[in-house]
């Protein structure tokens, strides 16, 4: 559990605007949006606030899902990679089994410094206990992550297939 995931605290942590400015894209759909979008900076045309995993996704999606239990991350990332077109934000827990599963499915990954997320009241949260990463699925997302890396947001890594370096 990261510092920003303390028991009793809100599970709502919104992505700050500078992340979207660095990516330089507009999304067709935010698939994990809160009902109250007052402090949401996601540049998207449409938003899903509930039961997103049960609904059809379309176009370029933005996904900053609940960071809860690893089974939750697996469900969200599974649907994200099955959709195959978008950018997802998660903790960079590289030793976690869910992370390794997602790594094998990603086109590229952008590792960022610790992000100070926005709280539901609009104030800036403290630094989390871990860094974050952005996962790309599809060519538009790949280009956006490279654009963000070129602007200094983080470093890009590309998963390779087992045996590809032999």
TrEMBL record:
Entry keywords, A to Z: Methyltransferase, Transferase
GO molecular function: DNA binding; site-specific DNA-methyltransferase (adenine-specific) activity
BP GO annotations: DNA restriction-modification system; methylation
Record-linked InterPro entries: Dam_MeTrfase
Leader peptide range in chain numbering: none
Name this protein carries in UniProt: DNA N-6-adenine-methyltransferase (Dam)
Species: Rhizorhabdus histidinilytica
